Amino acid sequence: MAAVIKTPMHKIEAEAPPDRYARGWHCLGLAEQYKDGKPHGINIFGTRLVIFKGESGKLSVIDAWCPHMGADLAIGCVKGESVVCKFHGWAWGGDGVCTEIPYAKRIPPKARVKSWPTCEENKMLFVWNDPEGNGPTPDVAIPRIDPVFSEEWSDWSIVQWTIKVNCRELVDNIADMAHFVSVHGSDNVVYFANLFENHKATQVMVGLNRKLGGADEYLTTIASYYGPAYQITHMFGSMGGYPVESILLNSHTPIDQHSFELRFGVLVKKFPGMTQEACDAMVKQYVDLTNKAFGEDVEIWHNKIRIDNPLLCDGDGPVYQNRQWYDQFYMDAATVPAELRNKRLIEIDKGLEKKPELKHAFDNV
């Protein structure tokens, strides 16, 4: 009798997440919410920061723990171009330098906290993180999205969740073709491509989806990460017989190595020929449908663990290649392999006649 050979069972492996936070721009949501003249505290990158608008109108982000006696600057107030600590009145400028101590004759030379680079684009506020302490370079600038400023489009509608898992689990979605069927109810994904290039990673997908694309029409999405934490999707579908063009924001900020804040936003192009009331109702309905669809992903992220060695099959997307791209943001910039800067294309084509253009969404380069 021939011996039975048993194939070893696959065992899940998972090391601890990196002991640093990703290099790149991180979106903090709509800039306008921070412009009310009050300091706003956020938990991010394993610490606490404070955001405030000075009298000049500029938004600043600095470390929130006052080095004098440890109070949270976010419970203080804004005076001129500084945030003032509620504990003893020490004032800190947007550059992190102490500007006033009301009861001192001189300010100690070391009275300085970290100031974080910021930018505003597409009505959003971004903060830059780099473990090496370097600032952002022009080649990683957030691209402008003209529809954000057009009256032909709706305003941003944004929802926010706290997810109790490392943020890499979210970024895996770039390469995850199979989940569109089981999670989002796509009937048939006929085209799926990934384009990796320097700090950008794009997913192009075409498939039937009754929820967002219509019963008999393809839903087409071009979803691009610009850096490790900010993704913009240009989506084309239909609803009620009307073509729908929309833009999705998917951004996250790590609270610590085991949790992150997730912001999801939707813009919809208004429907011409409709009354304002009917158009607003259609836009709201589509925003609600999109939020519900993204919420299906959120449910998964709330209920999964970290896996460094996923057991893949021939129908899965390029998960490992995507992780190689993502790992660059946790390396010193000088050590990033040259091949990660080159353009790499991976396609899964099931016979789509007219393919969408393979480019990064809203890339201005």
SSE blueprint and pairings:
Layout: E1 24-30, E2 40-44, E3 47-53, E4 59-63, E5 77-79, E6 82-84, E7 91-93, E8 98-100, E9 115-116, E10 118-121, E11 124-129, E12 157-163, H1 168-171, H2 179-182, E13 186-197, E14 200-209, E15 214-226, E16 230-239, E17 242-256, E18 259-268, H3 276-301, H4 319-327, E19 344-349
Antiparallel strand pairs: 1-11, 2-3, 3-4, 4-9, 5-6, 6-7, 7-8, 10-11, 12-18, 13-14, 13-19, 14-15, 15-16, 16-17, 17-18
Output the keywords.
mainly beta, Rieske Iron-sulfur Protein, Naphthalene 1,2-dioxygenase Alpha Subunit, Chain A, domain 1, 2 domains, eight-stranded antiparallel beta sheet, 36% strand, Cholesterol_7-desaturase, oxidoreductase, Rieske_2Fe-2S_sf, oxidoreductase activity, 3-ketosteroid-9-alpha-hydroxylase
CATH superfamily of the largest domain: Naphthalene 1,2-dioxygenase Alpha Subunit, Chain A, domain 1
- At CATH level 3, the topology of the largest domain is Naphthalene 1,2-dioxygenase Alpha Subunit, Chain A, domain 1
Strand order of the largest sheet: 12-18-17-16-15-14-13-19
- Note the main sheet: 8 strands, antiparallel
Domains (count): 2
> Roughly how many Å apart are the termini?
67 Å
Give the overall shape, derived from the CA principal axes: globular
Tell me, rounded to a whole number, the average pLDDT. 92
Pfam family, one: Rieske
Domain Rieske: 25-127
Cofactor: Fe cation
Keywords: 2Fe-2S, Iron, Iron-sulfur, Metal-binding, Oxidoreductase
